[in-house]
Structures are given as structure tokens and as C-alpha cells.
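3.2 Worked example (two chains)
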Amino acid sequence: MQRRSLLSLFSLFFLWRPHAQAATPPSIWLANSYQAHTDLRNFWVSEKFDGVRGYWNGQQLLTRGGTVLHPPAWFTQGWPNTPFEGELWAGRGQFTTAVSVIQQTQAVDADWQKLRFMVFDLPKHTGTFTERISAYETLVATLGLMWVEAVPQTQVASAAMLKQLLHDKVSAGAEGLMLHRANATYKSGRSNDQLKVKTYDDAEARVVGHMRGTGQFAGQTGALLVETRQGQRFKLGTGLRSEDRQTPPAIGEWVTYRYRGLTDKGLPRFASFLRIQPDIEKRP
């Protein structure tokens, strides 16, 4: 993944404060991880975009954590009062660009022109995912805006075909793939009706402490103490770069880490810091 100077990016995280928070974060549908036994004939497949999830509630554009974003007026002009969601995406390998843009409290037109809103679902539509595909494609076509695109969906017949598609997409710079069960209705929370497919496992944890570094890391952060959503705590040091150690994620920030399976105690094996997750509400 191409990145700007992480030091300047982290400065944006600490200096940025949203003007307002939504009363409650949107109730969104979240994915579990793909398992090899999944019957792929029942699923639609799309690219997993490496951006920031956005939720249009009919009046405001929010992150999944409920932070109100401040795009230029033209970006959402003509959007319906019906909720829809997608990914605020600057292109493959441009995650940090998307983050820096959505953090603006005073929108800069030239920066927001770098983003596309990749629409992938309609939360209030009562139909199956197959029906919602047609509905969101119609919505996007009706809007007729260059920066609002419908996420293409396809189907594969076997695990071998899925593996090849994953290889092709990742080789081209994609983050991975998403699977949606064809007959699934929209629901809040995690579900096996929506699956993410990557070349590695990842998860999110909240920073609850900073461990002092020793040796070559003396005077810096040696590791982050993080807590999973299940309340399990562990140290996360591998993957931190020198900028991360000098200016670590603040306590309460959520971070994404990679890992390779779980120990018998349910802790991630070979956990490695990946990045700050900006679209989850910070908690002290």
C-alpha cells in the first residue's frame, strides 16, 4: 500500500475533531471471514475497496462510527432521502488519501474530487441482496454523477475460481473480495451472509495503553496495549514503524491488525499492526 509520510498523517488524526456526532452510529451490516466450506453458488462477489465506509442517512454522510462528514455541497447534491451506503474510495492503494480527505472540517473541492462513492447496498430496502443490486444500480444511474458508482457484482462456481479471482484482484492492487448471500435481507451486525475474502486475516482492536520501548526503541513506544471487542487484551508491537512509535495512536483509537489464526486462548497469532481505523467512533 502506498503511503504518505505517516508522521504527517498521524498529525491529521490528532488535530482533527468532527463538528458533530450522529445521535447513534448507523446500524450496518458487517462481514465475517470467508471459510473454505462456503457454498459459493449462493453468493455474489465484488471487490473489497480499500477506503472509508460511508453511510448516507438521507440527510447527512456518516462514517460507520457515526461521525458526520463535511463534503462540499456538490458532492451530495441531489442525493435521495433514502439511505444508501458505500465506500469513499480514492483508488487502489490510496487509503491514506481517502482518510485525509474525509477528515476535513472545511471541505476542499480539489481534494473531494479525488474520491468516488462506491455504492454497494441499500440498508432500508426490504428485498434480497439480488434485488438490492438492481435497486442500487438504478439509484446510481438516476443520480448520473461521475463520482457515484455502483459496485459491480459477479458470481463464481467454485473455490478455485474464487481463489483465482482473489489473486487477480490483489495482484492489481485490490484489498480483497466481498461475498454477499444472494437471498439475504439487510441486517445489522456481523453475519455469515456477508463474508470478506483476503490473503490474510485482520481484525480491529481499541488502544488502551502504550508500552515503553527498550533497547533500540528506548524513549519511544515499544508496543500498543490493545483490547478486542471480546475484551481480550494483548500487546501489538510488530508492524509499528518509527513514525508510529514516535507518535502512536491515541488511547481510545481503533486500529486494524493482521494475524494468522488464533491461539488456544483465543488470542491472535503473529499479530501485526496495519493502520489506524478512522471510521470507528473513538472511546476513552
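3.2.1 Second chain
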Amino acid sequence: RSIKTLDPRNFTVIAVVDAQPPSTHIPLSPNLTPTIVIDHHPVGKRSFLKRIPYVDIRAELGSTSTILAEYLLEAGVEITPLVATALFYGIKSDTRDLGRNASPEDVKVSNALYQRISVKVLSDIENPRLPREYFRILKEAIQGALCFPPGLLISDLGSLGYIDMIPVVADLLLRAEGIRWVLSLGEWKGTVFFSLRTTDGRRRNAEKLAKRLVRGVPGGGAGGHETMAGGKVDLPSAQAGEGVRQRIKQRFLKELGSSWEKGTLFVGGDNGAKNRKAGVP
């Protein structure tokens, strides 16, 4: 059931997990203050958070799942295999197998959860059957990707019916040799979404860059961490998508010391070559 079908005013307690208000990522009215906020992202608007009865924000951790699992473990609550698997996978995916932004606490809690997980369910989550559309988008994302000095890569997926591909493409392309920054973006149901990934997070913070990409853009919002971030822009009309995507790409290049005319095809392919010759972003 979609949260959009629920009226928050019918509930006495509202918890926001893995995010902080006010944010465009939270489907709550700005006039509605949640009761609980649990998150591992850097603290946002402190003045707003002071109005919330219970706040637990631990930016030193790699995953909000670690915080939730600690609550259960310390309270001695029985953790079912499905809950353990969900929390374990949350830590695993947030930290990229306990490698990215993982703290000693993430490792400790992950080990405690592993004893309780369903290995079969975890395997099903990590190795799902994928629709052909997934591979079509992946093919076009790689063929149409453009590379810019110094080690920048942009993949514009255009209009999408499969939004999860945006972070998937960003994660995959960051593994390419010589690439330090990846911007993956696309349009879905009247909103432009983008993902940033970097191997250079200690020098240039991905979250700060993501926020600069949408600064001053109506309907825009962003957040994240040192090495990974994302954001979105709600479009005023169906025709505005291409212009907004181009604006984000231009800002990305300018912020990192490059420009559009320096771009070359990353791998190539008919679609990418045609677009490049035509000057299509």
C-alpha cells in the first residue's frame, strides 16, 4: 500500500526513518512534524529537529539499519529470520559489503544479525530475476555515457519506466578504471532523479555537490554521504525534463572543472554516437 494513500493526521505517532525533515524525499506536509526521526545521514536543519520529541541521528554509522538492529538486540527482542535478513541486507547494501563508510559498530551488528538471517531469502534479494527492460536500459546507459576530464562520467537515461536503474548505473560505472565521479540521471513520473558516486569523497563531498546541483532550482532537493548522494527535481511540466537534466549536467561539469565540449563517448554504440554527433545531451 502506497504511503500516499494514507492520511498522516489519522496517526498519533509518525516515525521518519533513514531521512530527516524537512526534505523533498519525505512525503509529509512541511506543516506536519513527525514524532520520531532515526537516521544516519549528517544532521540537516537543527532548528527543525529541536521540535521533534525523539531524534536519533548517528552520522558516524554506515547504515540506519544498524541503529534499528541495536534497538532490538539491546532490548532482548526476538528477531525473526525475515527481520534479521532485512536489517542485515540494509547494512550490507548501504556500506557496499561493509567497505564503504562502514564503522566498527556496523560490522559488529552485521555479525550479530548474520547468525539469525535466512540465507535463502538473502540470496533471493541479492539475485532477483530481472526484466528485459533492465538490460535494455543498462545497454543504452553504457553506450550513451560520456566521459570528461578529469575522470568524470555522465549517463543520462532520459525518460524511464524503471527508476531503480539510476543508482544501479551509477554504482556500476564508478567501477571503471580512471573514473572518479559518476552522474547518473533520468526522468520518472514528472520528476528528474539523479545519483552521484565518487571515489574522491574525502576531497569533494558528494552530498555537498548534490545540493549545489539543485540549489535555487524550484522543486529540487538532495542529500547523501561523502561518496554517494542523490537528489530530485519535481518538474513544473512534462516538457521541462530535458532542460532540467541539462542544467544538472552542466552544473556537475562546472563544479568539477570540466565542460560539455570536452566530452567523448565512454564506450560507444550507434545510439550514443548519433546523439553525440547531434549534440544531444
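3.3 Remarks
Residues 269-281 have pLDDT under 50 and may be disordered.
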